[in-house]
Design goal:
Blueprint lengths: L1 E9 L3 E3 L6 H4 L9 H6 L3 E5 H8 L4 H4 L4 E5 L9 E4 L3 H6 L6 E6 L1 H9 L5 E7 L7 E2 L10 E9 L2 E8 L1
Parallel strand pairs: 1-6, 1-7, 3-4, 3-6, 4-5
Antiparallel strand pairs: 2-8, 7-10, 9-10
């Protein structure tokens, strides 16, 4: 099992605006300007929170956005979208139950990423940095204080984005 976080943050470290929107990202560039397609082709499972899922819905039919993966949304409400399964509980326990051979992508949401980092389950961080300063918003990292070390594997430029790829030591 390999667990990946792949996503974009602002220069000041925010994953989303204070209202949880991604307008700043959509106004900056597109997935076509990145290595997204190659990355997605390697994934078996996506995990996201309800707020991230709502942002995906704004792009159109979510099943068309993530057509080849098993897709799970952590939520306390029912979810009636083909191709997506509502789940609850501890994200770390859920990930541990998915199976050893899966490549799991944490699409978004620090409420999903934080417990995985706290349990040392994140193997790869692929972070694109957008040339945007929000000043406030939803930070990417909110885990407990604990030293975690990663090794820089690659640094790339995709249009206006800098991409930093790290692997756990």
């Amino acid at each position: 099992m390999s667990v990946y976080f792949y996503g974009c943050v602002t220069l000041d470290g925010y994953l989303a605006a204070k209202d949880h929107s991604l307008r700043w990202l959509h106004q900056t560039g597109t997935a076509e300007e990145t290595g997204y397609e190659n990355f997605y082709a390697q994934m078996d499972v996506t995990l996201m929170g309800r707020r991230t899922f709502r942002e995906v819905e704004k792009l159109g039919n979510p099943a068309e956005v993530y057509p080849t993966t098993e897709n799970y949304v952590f939520t306390h409400r029912p979810l009636d979208r083909a191709g997506f399964t509502a789940v609850g509980g501890d994200p770390a326990a859920f990930v541990e139950g998915l199976g050893r051979e899966k490549h799991i992508w944490v699409v978004g949401g620090n409420t999903i990423l934080t417990p995985l980092l706290d349990r040392d389950l994140v193997d790869h961080l692929i972070i694109q940095v957008a040339p945007v300063l929000l000043g406030e918003g939803i930070p990417l990292f909110t885990q407990r204080e604990a030293l975690r070390r990663f090794r820089l594997e690659a640094a790339r430029q995709y249009g206006p984005f800098a991409e930093l790829a790290y692997s756990r030591l």
